[in-house]
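Input structure tokens:
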């Protein structure tokens, strides 16, 4: 199959690459951009490990063709920690032991970066509903829910402090 020249905007940088039209975004990120934080688990969009942000919204990169992403802003887990400092969500997951092996963690972080941007004060029920799209084999989810709640509070406090 012939390769097509595409330009992806990933984490604020334009990346030019040659890709077959059927190449998945997850594969382009990992193989062509060297961004291996986006994990591929089920390859069916069920597990959530491959979640990235497309124009600020959570998307499954294993269900998306790279060629479809021209003109869109893609954010991966590599863009979340800034200048070596964990985001409030990453810090809360660390403090509340909301991760174990770490395979699912990038997808959870990306899912909740988008979710908390839309819903800064979620109930536990809303957190669990949003988390239902991310499978984790290592935890019982309790610590993840607690971490998301803690992160939401920290993000609200930071926003309140910035506003005053």
């Amino acid at each position: 199959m012939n390769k097509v020249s595409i330009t992806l905007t990933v984490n604020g940088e334009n990346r030019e690459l040659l890709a077959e039209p059927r190449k998945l975004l997850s594969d382009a990120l990992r193989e062509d951009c060297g961004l291996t934080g986006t994990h591929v688990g089920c390859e069916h969009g069920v597990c959530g490990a491959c979640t990235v942000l497309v124009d600020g919204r959570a998307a499954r990169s294993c269900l998306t063709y790279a060629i479809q992403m021209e003109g869109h802003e893609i954010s991966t887990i590599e863009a979340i920690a800034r200048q070596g400092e964990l985001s409030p969500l990453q810090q809360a997951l660390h403090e509340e032991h909301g991760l174990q092996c770490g395979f699912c963690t990038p997808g959870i972080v990306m899912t909740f970066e988008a979710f908390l941007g839309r819903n800064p004060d979620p109930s536990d029920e809303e957190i669990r509903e949003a988390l239902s799209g991310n499978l984790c084999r290592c935890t019982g989810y309790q610590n993840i829910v607690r971490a998301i709640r803690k992160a939401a509070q920290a993000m609200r406090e930071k926003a309140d402090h910035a506003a005053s």
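Helices lie at 25-32, 88-95, 105-118, 124-131, 142-163. The two ends are 57 Å apart (CA to CA).
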